Amino acid sequence: MTEVASARGAEVGRRIGVGLMYGLWKPRVLGAWRVPATGPVIYAVNHSHNIDGPMVMGVAPRPTHFLIKKEAFVGPLGRFLTGIGQLKVDRHSTDRTAIAQALGVLDGGGVLGIFPEGTRGEGDFASLRAGLAYFAVRGGAPIVPVAVLGSTDRPGRLIKGLPPLRSRVDVVFGDPFDAGDGSGRRTRKALDEATERIQKQLTAHLENARRLTGR
To answer: What is the structure's pLDDT at 4?
Structure first.
């Protein structure tokens, strides 16, 4: 039987994230009002910093269950991540347990967080995986694009992949949109078409977020 992600744990994670993110950096949150107050939602987050997940978890208006690579679930950190409702996923195989847990979050009206680029990189949504389209169509959930924008090349950066401590980090939430074409089809062709639609929406949101924030 697949273990159900803890909604209460995700709320605890959100409260911990608030304290950490506002203590270490200076988050500026824009557009959080766009996130639907109830029902299943998927955050599609660009990924250029190691703090992107914790930052969104802390500043988002609703508790979030992120799909996180299994390599992070080691020792005490793994137990902590599981305790705050985060989901372990094997990025190199079809992880049916992670898929079932993620769909369980959406079926329960919760919020699923995904890095659609699969791993930390340029954070420009240039390369998307089909998993986001599958969860959006199968789970009947609107996608909310989220852009996390902060400098990783400024002086004062102590750790590679992190913005300098106490620097401003902008988190911009976009308008929710449906990935599917309304037919509910989950064929390979339908998911490929949905992925193309998603990429256009996410890229446009990132461009708008950069203009808005001057990043």
So the answer is: 67
Please indicate, yes or no, if residue 111 is contained in any of the structural domains: yes
Instruction: Specify the number of domains making up the chain.
Output: 1
Which among 85, 194, 90 has a CA at the least distance from the CA of 136?
194
Residues 56 and 182: their CA atoms lie apart, in Å, by: 29
**In this predicted structure, what is the pLDDT of residue 109?**
96
Residue 1 lies in a domain: no
Structural domain containing residue 62? 7-213
Query: What are the residues whose beta carbons fall under 8 Å from the beta carbon of 50, sequence distance 6 or more?
Result: 120, 159, 161, 162
Helix axis angle, 131-139 to 96-107, nearest 10°: 40
pLDDT for 192 beyond 70: yes
Note whether residue 91 is domain-resident.
yes
Strands, DSSP E only, in the chain? Answer: 26-30, 41-45, 65-69, 87-89, 111-114, 143-149, 168-173
d(C-alpha 36, C-alpha 106), whole Å: 13
Going by pLDDT thresholds of 50, 70 and 90, the confidence category of residue 155 is: very low
Q: Tell me what pLDDT residue 147 has.
A: 94
Helix (H, G, I), strand (E, B) or coil at 105: helix
Specify the CATH number for the domain of residue 17. Answer: 3.40.1130.10
Q: Tell me the pTM.
A: 0.89
- Measured distance CA(51)–CA(161) in Å, rounded: 8
Q: Within a domain: residue 78?
A: yes
Contact 140, 103 (CB under 8 A): no
Q: How many CA atoms lie within 13 Å of 18's alpha carbon, on the beta-carbon side?
A: 11
